[in-house]
Amino acid sequence: MYIYHIFFIHSSLDGHLGCFQVLAIVNNAATNIRDSRLRHYSSCPLGARDDAQDARAYFTTPIFYVNAAPHIGHLYSALLADALCRYRRLRVPSAAATRFSTGTDEHGLKIQQAAATAGLAPAELCDQVSAQFQQLFREASISSTDFIRTTEARHRVAVQHFWGVLKARGLLYKGLYEGWYCASDECFLPEAKVTRQPGPSGDLCPVSLESGHPVSWTKEENYIFRLSQFREPLQRWLRGDPRAITPEPFHHAVLQWLEEELPDLSVSRRSSHLHWGIPVPGDDSQTIYVWLDALVNYLTVIGYPNAEFKSWWPTTSHIIGKDILKFHAIYWPALLLGAGMSPPHRIYVHSHWTVCGQKMSKSLGNVVDPRSCLDRYTVDGFRYFLLRQGVPHWDCDYYDEKVVKLLDSELADALGGLLNRCTAKRINPSGTYPAFCTTCFPSEPGLVGPSVRAQAEDYALVSAVATLPKQVADHYDNFQIYKALEAVSSCVRQTNGFVQRHAPWKLNWQSPVDAPWLGTVLHVALECLRVFGTLLQPVTPSLADKLLSRLGVSATERGLGELYFLPRFHGHPCPFEGRRLGSETGLLFPRLDQSRAWLLKAHRT
């Protein structure tokens, strides 16, 4: 079981292929084709995985703080989790086998202060901002099964029960806690994590070394969690599972943190100072620390403290931003171990988005509104951009021209142009999946004969697309969705080269020589498109649906289990051969530089 949290041959410098290189292509293609033929109709089709032993999977995003409106970083977290979840559903179609939660974090001092500034009760502010997140996720086609709010009654029950378990196990004690506290980050900091920077008046003021936010010295009686007892168990967990935190640089960073001593952790605040939260059971003078409260949401969603949660928890994968890594990779696993549970199965970590090289900031006026971007670039377009350009282990930069260039190149021109070429009435007048001619394109490369038309590069294409589902599966497993999309895009370019090389528009359906090869060229291209459409479903669900519908692929033929590529090439019948294509026509994805006048205006200003 798994629970998922969401925390390119180019050869020779002159561009020409030598004889040896062509031979390598042919031989490699033949090997890959023979290997794929052996797997082709096996019980575990290419691109699918045997998930019988992994009957359930649970993916989570962070729950998002409601002190401000959502930005593209929030949407990126949700899209990463959504793509992982949708891909999992392609592998294991049963709806009951996969859960995906997101939600809003609604307690804490920041909410209390933001509500007072806005002249609202905290609950009113939470309702307003939580509704904005829910609306954004609906518009962005986020396929979550649960939306949790920490102000819900079910969550209070879960948090207070979790607290009781920690207390019963002797892991909570009351003591005087003294140290630096950052209200903006809702966390305590050791002296080593505090620095001094000039304030508005020029005086040196203490700030967090990590976030730059102001800190203040706090001294109060709190409940304290014996975090210091868990340094070695956490080290054993991470050293025993090198993929527990992905990508690897973040795994390494946490192990480095654990080389230092772990001080015990304050897990409550005085209610007189923080009233907007969940009270400590049996002690109304204390409010549970917002981060402990928030982290338990992952348990609340799956039914904790009822027994049903136990069948989901071992399968949990968290998708989180790097700014909350310490909370999810140190505090949360320690709390779980303290409560007698295992750490999450996986913690997937992503970096941040900058805007034209600068950090997003209200003061700079460069905060990107995700809902506006969904409207400008279309939902699937913006989903594709963020997941194609977002690299989890380093910060990614956003600017409008970058979005337009990518979407016009890869979705409008390469993918959309390929589909339009292969379904155009002038080239495909019957509007069907044409027949594949095995004498024009024999399965063994290097055969010669009057009817053989396939070239070495064509076998390389077949090999590339045949192995694409496996590549994509590996990239998803490694939390590299951007690499999965690059692999698809590379094959789209190869397929366009195949069509351009054989120029079906120059061939004649009435010619007994041309017709079999013309049909074969279109058949291969349509088969490639079918693979691309299937693999793009987790990222661009509406666009992929439109593409597959144009090809006449039914809803029951779109899973990884049905992804048999080019069966006629392997001597098997093709269920699509002779089938009428879909009736819908038109552009798959319109070019943005021609249809979005706002871009020119934005560029001028």
UniProtKB/TrEMBL annotation:
Catalysed reactions listed for this entry: tRNA(Met) + L-methionine + ATP = L-methionyl-tRNA(Met) + AMP + diphosphate
Q: Per its UniProt entry, what is the enzyme's top EC class, as one word?
A: ligase
Q: Where is the Methionyl-tRNA synthetase anticodon-binding domain?
A: 456-554
- A molecular function GO annotation: methionine-tRNA ligase activity
Q: Does the keyword Transit peptide apply?
A: yes
- Name its cellular compartments: Mitochondrion matrix
Please indicate if the UniProt record lists Nucleotide-binding as a keyword: yes
Q: Which CDD domains match?
A: Anticodon_Ia_Met, MetRS_core
How is this protein named in the record? Methionine--tRNA ligase, mitochondrial
Record the organism.
Equus asinus
Q: What is the lineage of its organism?
A: Eukaryota, Metazoa, Chordata, Craniata, Vertebrata
**Which gene carries the instructions for this protein?**
MARS2
